[in-house]
Amino acid sequence: MIAGMLFFLAFLCFGFxxxxxxxxxxxxxxxxxxxxxxxxxxxxxxxxxxxxNARISYIDPSNGDSxxxxxxxxxxxxxxxxxxxxxxxxxxxxxxxxxxxINNSVFAMTRIIFKKQVDGDNSFYLPSAVEFKRxxxxxxxxxxxxxxxKFLPDLPKEPRRLLAFYKPDEAFFKYVFTPLSRGPSGITRxxxxxxxxxxxxxxxxxxxxxKKDLDNVTxxxxxxxxxxxxxxxxxxxxGDGFSKKAVEKAISKPTLNPSPIDIxxxxxxxxxxxxxxxxxxxxxxxxxxxxxxxxxxNNLGIEEIYQQIVKLGARVNIVLSDCCNxxxxxxxxxxxxxxxxxxxxxxxxxxxxxxxxxxLFPEKQVSILVGSAEINQLASGNPNMGGFxxxxxRAELEKSLYGYQSSKSxxxxxxxxxxKARQQALTALCSGEAGGPxxxxxxxxxxxxxxEQ
Length: 453
Known about the structure:
Layout (H helix, E strand, L loop, with lengths): L1 H8 L12 E10 L5 E10 L4 E9 L6 E10 L11 E6 L4 E4 L9 E10 L2 E12 L5 E3 L1 E8 L8 H5 L7 H6 L15 E8 L7 H22 L2 E7 L6 H7 L12 E7 L2 E2 L10 E3 L12 E3 H10 L4 E7 L30 H8 L5 E6 L9 E2 L3 E2 H15 L7 H16 L20 E5 L3
Parallel strand pairs: 11-12, 11-13, 13-17, 17-18
Antiparallel strand pairs: 1-2, 1-10, 2-3, 3-4, 4-5, 4-6, 5-7, 7-8, 8-9, 14-15, 15-16, 18-21, 19-20
Helix pairs in contact: 4-8, 8-9
């Protein structure tokens, strides 16, 4: 089987553009007694949203059985430990599942300590130590025998190592060893992507975060369109061009003139607010570039933008605002980074075409409206990640369109992003109605999908 796999590798041409997951092979030795130790081998998949999956193999010293355990893991950001920006724990997010061997006391629950790394404007986390839980409930350190970081293009070169953790018929193994699925160069689809990205990048209080959103959303959708072989018709409204007039022009004919098979994405990052007598559950987007400009004459309701875009008749309409939905003048709260992998701001190049067809090329029109915060709530973020909801929406979109295990449902994807953004917002401080226990920010996205799916 190994020989056949190596032969098959000679004909693979992955050509990955980049990566958004990190994979780690970890080897650790834990002393059980003065004379007995156990060797744990771990294969870790770290996702962009701070979740992870670990497969841990070891030999039971009591009977010599080979054991393999799968353990779901997640960032410790809201568990009360490792809450600094420099050090973070990856901890259990569920019960261990024995794939090989039987449940026994020799398996020790695992947590992995990560340290923050900075590379230019981007940051990421790398494992620095692995701890194991003793039977008395205390955590013990281990000897790190080896630690290797890998990316998706590296894995097909090491089938023997992967076979220690996955069988050839498992979804992840097939994902790794399936040739890259991308459209040929040039425009190959009739559908077009109309992308409108609006970001308040010059505001001193939010500009860095909005610039991050602008860059990331642009990379996400232009990279996706390239992989799908779609033409992109993009409009970017930021910097000195940021204005209500520019937005109104961008969402009106003839600037925006989609056909019935096209996709329209409108995205906004900046300040948002609502008036006391507003009836929409969604915010107004502020389009002022100076405090001297009249707020009443320089805003648009995001729901009104959505309604206008839907009337143009594209097959898929996505309107997303990452902004506050609270009274005027409250600053946007700043929270902590997520435990993310290296390359988290790049885009992978291996499509899941079944999910792409279901989500992006449905038989009937699908329209989506998202506000990152409900009424009287603030939208949290930080300069490194941008808006939290945007970051998790991108992560969920990536999993669905490029992942090996993912949902074909917009509803499932958006609800998952909503919950993860809610949890991350708890790392920021808010007062008044927007604050919960301990003054932590309460942020829940407002989502509408027509028809719901």
